[in-house]
Amino acid sequence: MEYMLLVYSDEQDTATMPPAERDQWIGAFMAYTQALKDADVLRGSNRLRPTSAATTVRLTGGKTQTLDGPFAETREQLGGYYLIDVPDLDAALSWAARCPGTQRGAIEVRPVWAM
Amino acid sequence: MTRGDVTRGHETWGDVTRGDVTRGHVSNAAHRAAEQAARQSYGKLVAWLAARSRDVAAAEDALSDAFASALATWPAQGVPLEPEAWLLAAARRRLIDMARRRRTRETAASRLLLSLEEAVTEAAASGGIPDHRLRLMFACAHPAIDPAMRSPLMLQTVLGLEAATIAVVFLVPSATMGQRLVRAKRRIHDAGIPFRLPEPEDLPARLDSVLEAIYAAFAAGWADPAGLDQRRQGLAEEALWLGRVLAELLPDEPEVLGLLALMLHASARAVARRDGAGGYVPLSAQDPARWDAAAIDEAEALLLRASAQRRIGRFQLEAAVQSAHAARRRTGFTDWTAIGELYDGLLTLTGSPVVAVNRAVALAETAGAAAGLAVLDGLAGDASLAAYQPYWAARADLLTRLDRRDAADAAYARALTLETDPAARRFLAARQARLTQG
């Protein structure tokens, strides 16, 4: 089954990290990504630019409305994702628990709708 | 604190248990045995089919009519030699029938039939139907399932109880319970909750939630002490049965044995907690001759087996407390020192305020009412005890012993507002009335 691991964290918190800490933080993610690759479960992953770069589009009354900013203002923001292919929820949860993102935020585990 | 506690304090309505279900007649016993056989086979088949497809609802759909006719015919005609084969054949016939009537290949019935046929072929090739009920239990009590739905799910999928029956016990409207069960089953399927045994490092925590769910079902069945509701009556028995299934499947897990021992000890006192007039009898006033000796012996043997594993846990300790109470049937007295020590251990392990109340009650027996009350006073700040009847009943009792009548009166009043069982209410009211009589 495919699962999305959605990595949520407070982007202010990561933006204001001292350089040494940030290097360590990014290093941890790189090591984690490599572990997913080595286990042959990684199907895709990306880091997202902060919500300050987000634009939200919706159709209201037949007109396209474009707003600068994220879809929702939340305390923690979606900062990236991993798409993994594992046998079941337990395997997905165990990968999620090892993600560095859990130390400064939370990982939402969502099964992908099989088409 | 949210968990119903069937082993509350001794002078409180503590061991109030489910109403006396007298099924003395042989025909009733035979009826019960046939029903159990039907539920057992049904549970095995649901677990086996669901473990293949991860689709509990589909497994239930495939078997529901066959299960209904088993429940209707086995008690009268006897349990077939191969109950699982009987159920599968009946399910097959029924699905073929339904698929024909619809005259299309793409009906739900033909899809169910197809997966049933596949499963049967596979089972024949591998030499029989394996018992996957343990996997089903772990799936039902998975951390990704709402804790409140774990017991209901297990009762429905493993024992085949109807949503309406479960709803009564968990005090939820029938339609609501039905919807929640459907949603939980869909979640098992959609989220990819596995039907397998947890990894060794996860086993203790996962097993704990299975045990919790079984105990919650037991406590919910217990919560109808007057046995006023026919549909509730069997639930403690069903939970006990889940405990037996688990003990059969995991014979070396001490907490599994501990839970079964605990439930057996409580069941053993089912009859003794009511007098001939239906009045409440507190544990300390019960006649040990009215306890079920066979159930106590079985509980003791289980506890002995559990202790041989040298891995203590919450359920073993709680069972040991009940075992110490049960010893009165041989010794004629209650060893409150031993009970106090067991509660010390439980408190260290769980930190539960309910345990702290019980410990205070035991302390009052060895060190005096004032010492017990001092401990209860220390717990007064715990918000979860504000609506906990046994806390107030215990306070009332200790205050009475210390002749602090006004405070005792207020504590009885508080306990009464929290008690709904008529017999326990009469008992508390009588105690309260005695304060002004002498």
Structural key phrases:
heterodimer; A: 115 residues; alpha+beta; Alpha-Beta Plaits; four-stranded antiparallel sheet; 3 helices; B: 438 residues; mainly alpha; 0% strand; elongated
Layout of SSEs?
The complex is a heterodimer of chains A (115) and B (438).
Chain A: E1 2-9, H1 11-15, H2 19-38, E2 42-47, E3 55-60, E4 63-68, E5 77-85, H3 89-98, E6 105-111
Antiparallel strand pairs in A: 1-5, 1-6, 2-5, 3-4
Chain B: H1 26-53, H2 56-77, H3 83-102, H4 108-125, H5 133-140, H6 147-159, H7 163-169, H8 174-191, H9 203-222, H10 230-233, H11 235-249, H12 254-268, H13 293-307, H14 314-326, H15 328-331, H16 336-350, H17 353-367, H18 369-379, H19 389-401, H20 405-418, H21 422-437
Helix pairs in contact in B: 1-2, 1-3, 1-5, 2-3, 2-4, 3-4, 5-6, 6-8, 6-9, 7-8, 9-11, 9-12, 11-12, 12-13, 12-14, 13-14, 14-16, 16-17, 17-18, 17-19, 18-19, 19-20, 20-21
- Quote the beta fraction of chain B: under 5%
Q: Give the H and E element order of chain B.
A: HHHHHHHHHHHHHHHHHHHHH
The percent of residues in helical segments of chain B reads 55-70%
> Percent of residues of chain A in helical segments?
25-40%
Q: What can be said about the biggest beta sheet of chain A? A: 4 strands, antiparallel
Number of helices of chain B: 21
How many discrete structural domains of chain A?
1
CATH topology of chain A: Alpha-Beta Plaits
CATH superfamily of chain A: Dimeric alpha+beta barrel
The outline of chain B comes out as: elongated
Quaternary form: heterodimer
What is the CATH class of chain A? Alpha Beta
Number of strands of chain B: 0
Give the C-alpha Rg of chain A: 16 Å
Ends distance of chain B: 36 Å
Protein structure class of chain B: mainly alpha
- Contiguous low-pLDDT stretches of chain B (5 residues minimum) are 1-26
Largest interface: A-B, 9 and 12 residues
- Shape descriptor of chain A reads flat
